[in-house]
Amino acid sequence: MFGCLVAGRLVQAAPQQVAEDKFVFDLPDYENINHVVVFMLGTVPFPEGMGGSVYFCYPDQSGMAVWQLLGFVTNEKPSAIFKISGLKSGKGSQHPFGAMNLPQTPTVAQIGISVELLENLVQQTPVANAAVSSVDSFTEFTQKMLDNFYNFASSFAVTQAQMTPNPSEAFIPANVVLKWYENFQRRLTQNPLFWKT
Q1: Cα angle 23-41-28, degrees, rounded to a multiple of 5
Q2: Domains of the chain: which residue ranges?
Q3: Which end of the chain is more exposed for a tag (fewer CB within 10 A), N or C?
Q4: Residue closest to 12 by CA, chosen among 128, 143, 108, 151
Q5: Distance (Å, rounded) from C-alpha 169 to C-alpha 163?
Q6: For position 118, what pLDDT does the model report?
Q7: Alpha carbon 8 to chain centroid, angstroms
Q8: How many angstroms separate the CA atoms of 158 and 154, rounded?
Q9: Res 140: pLDDT
Q10: What is the distance between the alpha carbons of residues 104 and 127, in angstroms, rounded to a whole number?
Q11: What distance in Å separates the CA atoms of residue 122 and residue 117, rounded to the nearest whole number?
Q12: Half-sphere exposure for 39 (CA within 13 Å, toward CB)
C-alpha cells in the first residue's frame, strides 16, 4: 500500500504493519538523511473518506521514541516529500503510536503511517520545517541576491541636495534601480528561466 524513499537508497515497499491501521518503515543511519518521500504504491487505495498521517520517529538521548507529525497522503495526494534533517532535535507531538512498543535503536529512526479519517487529517498541524519548499534553490538564490543588491545599493542613496559634485563618479538615480529590481522580480516570478532566452 505504501512506499518510502530516501535519496541514494533502495525504495522500501514493504512497511511493517504494527496494527490494523498503522505501518512503520525503518530508516537506518537516519542522521545522514535530509528528505524522505512517502507515497502510495497504487495497488490499494485508501477506503473512501480515509487518508494516512505521516510521522517521523527518532530516539532521543535517553533512547525514548520522539514522534513528530510530518503531514499526510491521500488518494488525491498520493505522495509527499518531507524534510527531516532539522527535526532531530525538536519536541515530540501527539501521535497514534503511543501504546505500541516499537523497538528503538540509537541509529534507526522510523516513518509511521496511521490510516485516519480525512476530516481528522486536515485538522492536524504538522511540525514546522517538515514541508519542502516549492521554490527551487536557484529561484530562491536569485531572489535573495536581488534583495541583497537592492538593499545594498539603497543604503548609499542620498538626496540631490546631499550630493557633492565629483566629475569622476557616475550617479544612478535610486528610482532606476528600483524599477530594474521590480521588473526583474516580475519576470522571475513569471518564468524563473527567462534569463536563458
Answers
A1: 50
A2: 2-121, 137-196
A3: C
A4: 108
A5: 11
A6: 92
A7: 18
A8: 9
A9: 73
A10: 21
A11: 9
A12: 13
Distance CA 36, CA 6 (A): 5
CA dihedral for 84, 89, 91, 95, sign (positive or negative): positive
Grid coordinates of 157: 542613496
Edge to edge, the sheet with strand 79-83 lists 2-5, 35-40, 79-83
Using CA atoms of 32, 36, 41, 45 in order, give the dihedral in degrees to the nearest 10: 140
Query: How many angstroms from the chain centroid is the CA of residue 111?
Result: 15
CA–CA separation, 153 and 110 (whole Å) = 48
Question: Would you say residue 43 has pLDDT above 80?
Answer: yes
CA distances from 41 to 14, 26, 60, 196 (A): 10, 18, 31, 37
Grid coordinates given for 168:
569622476
Average of per-residue pLDDT values in the chain:
82
pTM: 0.63
**What percent of the chain stands above pLDDT 70?**
85
* Beta-carbon contacts of residue 146 (< 8 Å; ≥ 6 apart): 181, 184, 185, 188
For residue 129, what pLDDT is reported?
66
Q: How far, rounded to the nearest angstrom, does the alpha carbon of residue 38 sit from its chain's CA centroid?
A: 13
